[in-house]
Amino acid sequence: MTTTSRGTTPPFSSVRHALQAIETIATSGSPRAFIVGTARSGKTSLLREITNLLADLETAFTEYRPGTSAASVPPSRVLVVDDLHLLDEEHLDQIGGRALDPTAGLIVASRPWPRPDGLTAIWRRLEQDAPAVVLGQLSRSDALTYCQVHGRAVSSACLTQILAATGGISWLATRALSLHDDRDCVDDPEHSGLHLLLQDEIAHRLNTADAQLRHLVELVSIDPHANLGSIESVSAVDALIAQGHAEGLLLRNGRPVPVVRSAVLASTPAHRLAELRAETSADRSSLISHDDASAPLLQQALNVWSKGDLDGAAGLVEEAEMAAGSPNSDLAADLAAAIWAERGLPLISSQSYLARPTDDPASSVRALLVHAGAGFPDRFHDRQSVAQSPTTLGVALQLFEAGLRDSVKQQPPASALSSLVQASELYSASKSVGPIAELPAVVAAGVAMGAGELQTAQAVIDAAVSAEQGGPWARPRLLGWQAFVAIRNERPHEAREALRQAEELVSPQSSRTQLLLATIRITLARRYGDTQSLTMAWQAALTASRNVDVSLYSLLPLGSLIDAGARLGDSVTLAPYLAHGLEIVRRLGYPPLWSNHLWWAGVQQGILLNKPGSLAPHAQALVAAAPHSSVAAAMAQAGGVWVAVLGGKVDAGAVEAAARGLAAAGLSWDGARLAAHGAGRLPDDRRASSRLMACARELHPPEVIRHAAGSTESSPTPSHEGASLSEREHDVAVLILQGKTYAEIGQAIFISPRTVEHHVASIRRRLEAKSRSDLIAKLRLTIGGTEDR
Q1: Is the pLDDT of residue 282 over 60?
Q2: Are 347 and 374 contacting, i.e. CB atoms less than 8 angstroms apart?
């Protein structure tokens, strides 16, 4: 990192919030911060200001250079690291070890890409101490500050044009401001001369960029909605977009700013431009009849749809409005219906096909999917089979149709699930990225969970994520469902990882996917967090839910929201959604594969709110479905036992059998809660109570993260002085560090608060802690670093 004399104004005035953060960082007891920004966004300048202030405060610091050993720097000295993203794994591990010590001063700066695991671990650990300082795009006020500091007078009109042309990308905007000359504006109000100077610098950066990154920037500069199928995978596209953003060549969403687009057009040879235009126009033309005047608009709409831009695609479809029977009418119907479904409005999606009736086999299956999702069986219609050569996509849709029709029967055949699983596999193999209201993998996973086949649900979703089913637009939704199924499978770490990946995608998220991700957060908080985290997640989920209607395919996540609301004493907010969901399954004839979990959510709501009258209709529905559904039978049995437990009649054997029955039906967490409730009402029978608590812990293990290589669940956790914590003490210690009370710890790992108290006393003795603050400090040193949540 280069140094300057103290007090020198940095060449780039970082965004104001970053400058305001300098003093807070430097004057804290143990200065710790993660600074992130794109190329030439002011990271080094900000670090320089921080070190200047540290020197003024006489705070010892060490600037990291080649050969520096992070381990040799005392915790009392602040280690300052620039360009963290350029370090290799060995050096990242050293700095990561320092990051785990909350008393060690550490300030680092990095680009947002690349993100190796070691860098991500440092980022997350430092963000536990303070939010990251993000150097984003240059705002108008930032630009004015820059001009004031450097004595440059730029008119308001010129500043507006510069920010529009550069998109506020830090290095481009500041370079443009430094090159700007008011004298040129008299005869060149469009700043074409300034653009030429910038284009030369952009062309130089492109010439030195990776070949794949350059290819991506060229493609999106020719057509912002270009098909990127020539890049090997969706994940590779996401990585290249992240790289382009970090290099300051693309916005975060993968779009180039005007001056980058003009630089590509100006610096690319004519023959290369022709090749790029041919590549972008090749897209999905096989789906479109080019004899129709609407073809160009629909072609662009398909491209926009594949990138997740719903509003852009909708506008193009509406602009291409055509009469029924036109060559592209079926495609227009598919697009319109898929857009409305993705917006979370299944009723409007269904109406799209009523407005454009279709006889096309593939479109008919997509229409069936939409009508079923909205709960309109009267809109189903059997098609006469059309003789045609089988294709992978065609067979996938045939199996999809068969499985979906079977799944909404009152006595669904076993082939319903197998057909849907096969349909999902073939749909992935077809590489189709076209419009569809719901992904085959999501429907298959929903039916699998409805049948109590959690392993099948996980397998089909995992396979779809791996195969990138549906293309870029589908990835956030698939990752959300992967997280949802993982939670049901008692795999919270995998759920959090899938959620993290979904949140980090640069592609836009639709309203219903935003609600799905909010539901994941609230479900994790409900099962593994405390009341405060649940309340915060609940408020966020309510905000997301206001833009989305219920469909058949959202009933499972809806059940999780209903349960969370009941836990917080709120049965009113989601009452219309529950009623709408029940109306959908009523119109479909109460198919058990789709109805059981909604009824169970109603039962749980009544139990949590202590309103036996409200749960009765749902319990009766489960009893009625039990003869034809093993899942309904398990739920009906458990519901009866649960009501008896709440009434003070506890049969330990019946409680354990019902709890294990729920687990076998894919409801392990519910079974654990039932067992724990039963144990809590057997204070005089310690043997039976202990057996039920052990059952609860078996069905729903606490979320404890151990990163130590080679450790096992039964291995003791070493302490800072050679003492060791037992497995149960380790679990309690983790929850203490999360700030949970004794009662909350007991609820989390199914032990009594008194037992928690005994464990805490034992931990204090082992660690020789003299006070609570001393205990917390020693626990952080002992296990705090390995419990990265």
Answers
A1: no
A2: yes
Greater model confidence, 227 or 485: 485
The CA-atom distances, in angstroms, between 360 and each of 366, 503, 644, 694 are 10, 37, 55, 57
Per residue in 512-564, pLDDT (tens digit) is: 999 999 999 999 989 888 777 888 888 888 888 888 899 999 999 999 999 99
Q: Say what the pLDDT of residue 657 is.
A: 95
Question: What is the torsion angle, in degrees rounded to the nearest 10, for the CA atoms of residue 274, residue 279, residue 283 and residue 289?
Answer: 40
Query: What CATH architecture is 295-497+512-543?
Result: Alpha Horseshoe (1.25)
- State how far the Cα of 533 lies from the Cα of 543, in Å rounded to an integer: 16
Identify the burial level of 152 via C-beta atoms within 10 angstroms of its C-beta, where 0-12 means exposed, 13-18 middle and 19 or more buried. middle
Buried/exposed 305-328: b ≥16 CB within 10 Å, e otherwise: bbbbbbebbbebbeebebeeebeb
**Is the CB of residue 650 less than 8 Å from the CB of residue 644?**
yes
- When pLDDT is cut at 50, 70 and 90, the band that residue 450 belongs to is very high
Domain ranges of the chain: 16-135, 140-282, 295-497+512-543, 547-699, 717-786
DSSP designation for 197: H
Distance separating alpha carbons of residues 593 and 735, to the nearest angstrom: 37
User: What DSSP assignment string belongs to 610-665?
Assistant: T-HHHHHHHHHHHHHHGGG-HHHHHHHHHHHHHHHHHTT---HHHHHHHHHHHHHT
Sorted by sequence, the CB contacts under 8 Å of residue 616 that are 6+ apart come out as 606
Cα angle 273, 278, 281; round to 5? 125
Query: Given CA atoms 602, 604, 609, 610 in this order, what sign does their dihedral have?
Result: positive
Q: Give dist(CA 523, CA 645) in Å, integer.
A: 25
Which one of 158-172, 300-314, 389-403, 726-740 scores highest in mean pLDDT?
158-172
* Residues sharing a CB contact under 8 Å with residue 404, sequence separation 6 or more, in sequence order: 368, 369, 372, 420, 443
Q: Span 233-243, mean pLDDT? A: 78
Fold for the domain defined by 717-786? Arc Repressor Mutant, subunit A (1.10.10)
Region of poorest pLDDT, from 149-163, 190-204, 286-300, 534-548? 286-300
CA dist 426 and 420 (Å) reads 10
**Which H or E run includes 358?**
none
What would the CATH number be for the domain defined by 16-135?
A: 3.40.50.300
Lowest mean pLDDT among 89-93, 134-138, 466-470: 134-138
Mean pLDDT, the chain, as a whole number? 82
Q: Give yes or no for a contact between 599 and 581, defined as CB atoms under 8 angstroms apart.
A: no
Q: According to the 3-state scheme, what is the secondary structure of 282-298?
A: HCCHHHCCCCCCCHHHH
Question: What SS3 class is residue 509?
Answer: coil
- What is the torsional sign of CA 569, 575, 579, 581? negative
**Radius of gyration for the alpha carbons in the chain, expressed in angstroms and rounded:** 30
Amino acid sitting at position 690? S
Tokens representing 582? Answer: 């029940």
pLDDT in tens, 479-494: 999 999 999 999 998 9
- pLDDT attached to residue 393: 80
Structure token digits, residue 575: 């009452």
Strand order in the sheet with 106-110: 61-63, 78-81, 106-110, 32-37, 133-135
Output the six-digit token pair for 208.
């030195």
Tokens of 432: 């189709």
Question: What pLDDT sits at residue 550?
Answer: 93
pLDDT at 723 over 70: no
pLDDT exceeds 90 at position 445: yes
Query: How many helices (H) and strands (E) would you count in the chain?
Result: 38, 7
Tokens found for residue 623: 């009893």
C-alpha to C-alpha distance for 334 and 364, rounded to whole angstroms:
9
